[in-house]
């Protein structure tokens, strides 16, 4: 089957799902050859040895099958552990971390629709990746209106080759996307395909008055919220959160520090107290995001079940604070904590206030940005307000 037919079928699926909502973006999806941007990738395998990643390359999979896979509405991983590419291996491998991917087209185009571009809009894209979303922007707006920044030199070079092969010539910058690209500012729209802990000030400064910044806010607990921010004339910004729950890989410079949190953490001598909120409450995406707002330096060390009850560990390495939350046979939980700012104490307080306020959904949250602070809050609820780490 030809790639033209596959592109049209992909566009039809995304139109039917509601991810594509405008004829202009539909034409872009029907035109941009995604297979040129994912000539090789990893696909996930569930095996008796756990999750592994199988290389899909010309050496391992037929051309027809690779073409078919390229036009699936799937995210394809293109780099593992900051430097392993599909062509580097022949057999499935385990991954420490996934460091680049071609995001599923449905999510890509849904965000592009939310960006609300118009003919002549100048767009700054943070995170070129494979170059596929960059190509869609070029097809919709013209390459002269697109600037894209990629922090990884190897990925940037691959994206440049992909874009050249597909016939697109945007301005490509290799550097820290959190710094934006002042040389080509100002911009009407800024879109990030990585998650950030707070909105980088450069994005606000480089936006024209009325510019839109579209990104996902995340953090070290891996909660995520989808933010749409408008730049004001005085280089402040205000925004809201959209109802969709999207997540992207964290910006590399904002990755959490390495940590070893486990059952040897020094909390055994702390007096247990009943937990008012169990760790399972964080299965709710909004609750997880609130927990992250309340304890922005906290990291979850996982759940230990070594010959005893389940214990979840949370640690703030900066202050040395640790919380161990233990589940008992009667399905109650207790907490042992040490340090000046125990993470679970902060999380419980925030989630209790949120529940007392009626558990408002993320679309009721707002964000205010100035040069000296960024604040996420729920209007009308003074207890539901937090400063983002800057």
TrEMBL record:
Pfam families noted in UniProt: PCMT (PF01135)
Keywords, ordered alphabetically: Cytoplasm, Methyltransferase, S-adenosyl-L-methionine, Transferase
Gene3D superfamilies xrefs: Vaccinia Virus protein VP39
Region (Disordered): 255-275
Stored InterPro entries: Methyltr_grasp, PCMT, SAM-dependent_MTases_sf
Single GO molecular function: protein-L-isoaspartate (D-aspartate) O-methyltransferase activity
Cell compartments where the protein resides: Cytoplasm
GO biological process, one term: methylation
GO cellular component terms listed in the entry, alphabetical order: cytoplasm
Enzyme Commission number(s): 2.1.1.77
Main localization, broad class: cytoplasm
Residue ranges crossing the lipid bilayer per the database entry: none
UniProt xrefs under NCBIfam families: methyltr_grsp
Family the entry assigns: Belongs to the methyltransferase superfamily. L-isoaspartyl/D-aspartyl protein methyltransferase family.
PANTHER family: PROTEIN-L-ISOASPARTATE O-METHYLTRANSFERASE, PROTEIN-L-ISOASPARTATE(D-ASPARTATE) O-METHYLTRANSFERASE
Protein name, as recorded: Protein-L-isoaspartate O-methyltransferase
């Amino acid at each position: 089957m030809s790639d033209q037919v596959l592109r049209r079928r992909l566009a039809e699926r995304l139109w039917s799902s509601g991810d594509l909502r405008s004829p202009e973006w539909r034409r872009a999806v029907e035109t941009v050859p995604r297979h040129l941007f994912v000539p090789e990738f990893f696909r996930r395998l569930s095996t008796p040895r756990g999750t592994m990643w199988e290389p899909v390359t010309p050496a391992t999979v037929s051309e027809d099958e690779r073409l078919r896979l390229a036009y699936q509405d799937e995210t394809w991983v293109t780099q593992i552990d900051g430097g392993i590419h599909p062509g580097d291996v022949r057999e499935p491998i385990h991954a420490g971390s996934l460091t680049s991917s071609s995001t599923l087209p449905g999510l890509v185009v849904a965000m592009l629709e939310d960006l609300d571009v118009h003919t002549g809009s100048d767009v700054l894209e943070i995170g070129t990746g494979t170059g596929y979303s960059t190509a869609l922007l070029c097809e919709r707006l013209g390459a002269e209106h697109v600037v894209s920044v990629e922090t990884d030199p190897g990925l940037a070079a691959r994206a440049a080759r992909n874009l050249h092969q597909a016939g697109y010539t945007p301005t490509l910058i290799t550097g820290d996307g959190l710094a934006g690209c002042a040389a080509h500012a100002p911009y009407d729209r800024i879109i990030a395909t990585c998650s950030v802990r707070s909105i980088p000030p450069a994005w606000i400064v480089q936006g024209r008055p009325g510019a839109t910044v579209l990104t996902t806010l995340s953090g070290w607990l891996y909660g995520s919220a989808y933010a749409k921010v408008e730049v004001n004339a005085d280089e402040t910004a205000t925004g809201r959160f959209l109802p969709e729950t999207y997540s992207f890989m964290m910006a590399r410079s904002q990755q959490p520090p390495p940590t070893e949190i486990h059952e040897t953490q020094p909390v055994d001598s702390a007096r247990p107290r009943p937990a008012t909120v169990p760790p399972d409450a964080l299965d709710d995406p909004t609750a997880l995001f609130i927990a992250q707002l309340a304890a922005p330096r906290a990291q979850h060390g996982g759940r230990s079940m070594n010959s005893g009850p389940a214990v979840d560990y949370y640690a703030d390495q900066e202050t040395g604070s640790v919380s161990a939350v233990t589940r008992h046979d009667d399905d109650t939980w207790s907490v042992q904590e040490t340090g000046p700012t125990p993470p679970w104490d902060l999380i419980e307080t925030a989630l209790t206030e949120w529940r007392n306020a009626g558990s408002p959904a993320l679309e009721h949250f707002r964000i205010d940005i100035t040069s000296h602070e960024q604040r996420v809050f729920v209007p009308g609820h003074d207890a539901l307000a937090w400063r983002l780490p800057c």
